[in-house]
TrEMBL record:
<dbReference type="GO" id="GO:0006508">
    <property type="term" value="P:proteolysis"/>
</dbReference>
<keyword id="KW-0732">Signal</keyword>
<dbReference type="InterPro" id="IPR036852">
    <property type="entry name" value="Peptidase_S8/S53_dom_sf"/>
</dbReference>
<protein>
    <submittedName>
        <fullName>Peptidase S8</fullName>
    </submittedName>
</protein>
<feature type="signal peptide">
    <location>
        <begin position="1"/>
        <end position="33"/>
    </location>
</feature>
<dbReference type="InterPro" id="IPR050819">
    <property type="entry name" value="Tripeptidyl-peptidase_I"/>
</dbReference>
<dbReference type="InterPro" id="IPR030400">
    <property type="entry name" value="Sedolisin_dom"/>
</dbReference>
<feature type="domain" description="Peptidase S53">
    <location>
        <begin position="76"/>
        <end position="399"/>
    </location>
</feature>
<dbReference type="GO" id="GO:0004252">
    <property type="term" value="F:serine-type endopeptidase activity"/>
</dbReference>
<dbReference type="GO" id="GO:0008240">
    <property type="term" value="F:tripeptidyl-peptidase activity"/>
</dbReference>
Length: 399
């Protein structure tokens, strides 16, 4: 099975960029400014079957900045914008809860980079020393796997999104020793066995597969397990197609002159589809998904790199280091995991809960991720649709 990481950053590395100096971005593109998207380049080479292919892409139409002045704002949406867009109680909720991030390989600068992000946006420190941050290998120890620059970008994206949405949460980073599905699954199980973990985000995926083969990695009652729906449009992806997870799609998020202050449409890359193997969620029965089995996505959040998020990463890869703009459903999966943590209900609910509380979501009713056999599988509409599911968070009531 070919697995695919869900980090999605825009841009193609071109020779001309080598002559462009790294610059401070804050005054040129304020947080939340929607930029036009450039071409894309994968951060990682395509992996062989049974392994995850990290597909982090960097927005090369936004020049990376090694640093940003204290009173300036990096390009891309920051915590205040995301919290506003989704009406979240981030300042007051989440204390005592842990969000786990599962990724492959080692990001040696993960904690230091997290400190830069949180300091820049005025968030409380989250360090090993103060007990907020913990990094372990898939066996629970500190024998970390080898460094990988592409996956390091993925890790920084994930950690920054947890920080943006739930700054009072603790963060557990579990690094799998390779990008094989077995090792990533073992890392998920390790995260689930760690006291205090209420949500686990998985920003990777592959072709549709059976829970009979892999479901034990994701079946953790009492913990919200989220998975990216994908960045290639229509076509079911595992583990998002698992019966046990919340499948997270993607949107384009823009400021707007309406009562919410924001508008969203389906992102053209957001994954969607029907599993050929796994049982449908009982909560989806009244939403006319058109899928005989498991439908994805369930819910969604910002993922379009054109309206991407600010991320800091100092493990240089392809010449990019510092402040960058990211997109993809690698953004939306940790966002939704962190909203679950803000709500604090995971001990008593499962992934059907959003279906019985859809009124607490912003319904996304326009946009498409391409063409498909049944309209709602790839076109946003009132109610459930494939690219955006039931919609995006409007507070924590659906979680």
């Amino acid at each position: 099975m070919q697995l695919r990481s869900r980090a999605r950053l825009f841009g193609t590395v071109v020779t001309a960029l080598a002559a462009i100096p790294l610059a401070v971005l804050g005054t040129a593109a304020p947080s939340g400014a929607a930029a036009s998207a450039g071409a894309t380049a994968h951060s990682c080479a395509t992996a062989k079957a049974g392994f995850a292919s990290c597909k982090a892409l960097v927005r090369t139409d936004v020049v990376a900045a090694k640093s940003v002045a204290p009173n300036a704002t990096p390009s891309g949406y920051g915590p205040s914008s995301l919290q506003s867009a989704y009406n979240l109680p981030s300042a007051t909720a989440g204390s005592g809860r842990t969000v786990a991030i599962v990724d492959a390989y080692d990001d040696p600068t993960a904690e230091a980079d997290l400190a830069v992000y949180r300091s820049q946006f005025g968030l409380p420190a989250c360090t090993t020393a103060n007990g907020c941050f913990k990094k372990i290998d898939q066996n629970g120890g500190t024998t970390y796997p080898r460094k990988d620059g592409g996956w390091a970008q993925e890790i920084s994206l994930d950690l920054d999104m947890v920080s943006a949405i739930c700054p009072n949460c603790h963060i557990l980073l579990v690094e799998a020793k390779s990008s094989s599905f077995a090792n990533l699954g073992a890392a998920v199980n390790r995260a689930a066995a760690t006291p205090g973990v209420v949500a686990i985000s998985n920003s990777y995926g592959g072709s549709d597969a059976s829970d009979a083969s892999y479901g034990s990695y994701y079946n953790h009652p009492g913990i919200a397990v989220t998975a990216s729906s994908g960045d290639a449009g229509y076509g079911a992806s595992y583990p998002a197609s698992s019966h046990y997870v919340t499948a997270v799609g993607g949107t384009t998020l823009n400021t707007a002159s309406n009562s919410r202050g924001w508008s969203e449409t389906a992102w053209s890359g957001a994954g969607s589809g029907c599993s050929a193997y796994n049982t449908a969620l009982s909560g989806a029965a009244s939403f006319a998904t058109g899928c005989a089995k498991r439908a994805e996505a369930d819910v969604s959040a910002v993922a379009n790199p054109s309206t991407g998020v600010a991320v800091y990463d100092s493990t240089a890869y392809q010449g990019y280091v510092g402040w960058m703009v990211f997109g993809g459903t690698s953004v939306s999966s940790p966002v939704i995991a962190s909203v679950y943590a803000l709500a604090g209900n995971t001990g008593s609910i499962d992934n059907n809960y959003p279906y019985t509380h859809a009124s607490s979501l912003w319904d996304v009713t326009s946009g498409s991720n391409g063409s498909c056999p049944t309209t709602q599988w790839c076109n946003a509409r009132t109610g459930w649709d494939g690219p955006t599911g039931l919609g995006t968070p409007n507070g924590i009531g659906a979680f």
